[in-house]
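Blinded run. Sample ID left blank on purpose so nobody reads anything into the name before looking at the predicted structure. Input follows.
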Amino acid sequence: MENITEIKEYVSLKEASNTLGVSSATTRNWVKAGYLSRYLNSQNVVFNKVDVIKLKQDINLGKIDKLTKRANKKSSSSIFIPDEYIQNKDLEISLNKILNIYKKNNLEIDKVVLVVALILLKKVQLIKTIKELKLEKIIFKNNFIKKEIFEWFNDLNNLKFNKNYLKILNIDIPLNCDFLGLIYQSLIKEGEKAKKGSYYSPKEVVDEIIKENIKKENIVLDPCCGTGQFLLSVANKTQNPENIWGFDIDNNAVKIARLNLILKFPEKNFFPNIYCLNTLLELDTSSLFLDINIPKFDVIVTNPPWGVHFSSLEKQELQNKYPDIKSNESFSYFLKKSYELLKKGGRLSFILPESILNIKTHRDIRRMLLEDVKLLKIKYLDRLFKNVFTPVIRIDFEKNNPEDNHILLSEMKEFVYKLKQLDFKKNTDYLLNVFIDNRDILLFKKMYDTKHIILKNNADWALGVVTGNNKKHLSEIKQKNFEPILTGKDIKRFSIKTPKTFIDFKPHKFQQVASEDKYRAKEKLLYKFISKYLVFAYDNKQTLALNSANILIPKVPNYSIKTILALFNSSPYQFLYQKKFNAFKLLRSDVEQLPLPILNIKQHKEIKNFMNCIIDKKISDENKKLVYEDVDKYVMSLFSFTKAEQKYILESITNPETLLKIK
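Blinded prediction complete.
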């Protein structure tokens, strides 16, 4: 750190971070990595404003690949077709034709969507004559359509459509689906989706929610309706479009949602109850500027945005408005607001990330769900959205206080569990481990009733190397003084892959490094940190590891490290871990709770022999699988599981076949 020796314009850490569009912690890490210099001014750390702006420009121009990916994930310009939205091949063909015209001729998104809207309106005979794409030439069937299209044209900066837009008019565009939403969703840049936290849901999931929750006379709201995917499904259950309501902050999406509803009811003259507003912050005053009376709703359904990055002002307003929500998570705010908008006895169904069930940050909204509503159903949906790794669930509730004996249903795969809602209030942080039942609890008990020891206070743990700049410090070619280093991708069950990454190990140059004796231990276990499964590998080569592969060095008296390797990779432990903790990050605190049965010398020796066979690279993969099956049965026998219990354990594990993938 240097002192300021000449007059320049300097900014604080917070100001620099805001300019760069990253957190203060990330800015500090970039300083450590040498991307940005800092200075001392009257005991305060400051940055040269010119340096900050230059770094931002370099990132935007892609000159610093690592930082471009980190800072600009939410500024990604890539577009992709949401496969979960495609219903048939004809739909995909029409969509690709439009996308090709759009990309080849550098067209404007708003105008492309408007042209598609006009084609669809003509198909249902709500307008006539669109060949020239001139507003004055269009003939409208009614004033509602005219008002909507006039507003759309007026919102465009340039009313002229060049000849390339006319090419779209020759494409056959299907009715009876949200094609407008599909084209808009395909044209929005990935970064915009990430900023808004908006990803659209598969039709079959939406239709199932509507089928199970909506009656034809219900007044229904989607509080973040996007292009109206849920509302279109609601329209299939009612003949009264005025009972269908939607709000969204995206003006273009709102226009599409209105058009979608008009297309759904071409014989009716109505203006859809779909409005552009901020549901979380503007509804209390909406009647003042919308001149509408917002009712209490019978049903609220949506896939709310997750992980929205609110501005500082928005954060303050949200905290004032929803003081019970400490997480600042967008889906929690939408749950809270929707609860307020529901009638007494009304129903809600949301698509949400699985993390709402078990991450400590979300204890605030879990408390509300357990204390203020009747949870009706929690259904595991796995991964739904393209380019989104997070598994998804569906939560349904009724706006009524739960009785002491109220039972909620949870569903995962073919398993349905009946659970007493108020039992979860006893859990630490109101954890909703809902994909278990009494049968699972009895199997947990069987494992923990077996005389055992745990890893807490009986192991050393270490994070892999955090370089701060992998591009600078890592190489795919072994150079002089470089040695192999493992990544999370190199960790497989039981053993490690041959490393393909190398590093010149000089700890003082890296952002974060554990003490070297942890990496150089005679024996250690390496495990994937980001994983829904337990994935542990054995290493006795003193191999280095990056922070995607963490380190466990057991120090359990009279306990073989290879026994722990066998246990943690076995089906009973996968079952226990997935059911009890249900997390996507392998946390030390969770692993420390896994029971290690007290074994005799003979048992340790037998397990060690199994492990030596699996780890031995000379043995064929097929034979390794056979050995794994034997060791899995052996671990089952340690807890005296019956054949029926063993079968149930194997069936309950998510993707149990992955356990046999030794490669």
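Unblinding after everyone has recorded impressions. Confidence is low (pLDDT under 50) at residues 1-7, 68-77, 193-197, 656-663.
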